[in-house]
Design goal:
The protein is of the alpha+beta class and 124 residues long. The protein contains three helices and three strands; from the N terminus they run H-H-H-E-E-E. A three-stranded mixed sheet has the order 1-2-3, covered by helices on one side.
Length: 124
């Protein structure tokens, strides 16, 4: 009997572990509904949501500044571009510079070439 006790305890422990992995939808209606709601709430809080503006009136518009392509960039020009594009922020990107991939609809991206001239103007 003493040799069967470890086997019985191991079987009981494994059964308990497997029960913890069971689908919550398989249980009773009331407990499954509560558990499912908690699971979806935590999944939503960890989900990636890109930055969105409240209104399209606050979004950047790069179209009015496209005539500045090819011109040498300066800080004062960056402020002018920001105002004319109705942007709230400016990001200047030089060749080979690492950039983050987050999207900000209220930002103008000023992409420069190796000579410091404006190569592209994009919102985001």
């Amino acid at each position: 009997m003493a040799s069967r006790l470890p086997i019985a305890l191991t079987s009981l422990a494994l059964t308990g572990l497997m029960a913890g992995c069971a689908n919550p939808g398989m249980g009773g209606a009331s407990s499954a509904g509560n558990l499912q709601a908690d699971t979806s709430a935590s999944a939503d809080s960890n989900a990636y949501t890109p930055l969105q503006s409240d209104s399209s009136l606050n979004d950047c518009d790069a179209q009015p500044v496209q005539n500045m392509l090819g011109q040498a960039y300066s800080d004062s020009m960056g402020d002018t571009l920001r105002q004319r594009a109705s942007a709230r922020a400016v990001r200047v990107l030089k060749p080979g510079q690492v950039m983050t991939m987050e999207y900000n609809p209220m930002r103008i991206n000023i992409i420069l070439d190796a000579k410091g001239s404006i190569e592209a103007l994009r919102c985001g």
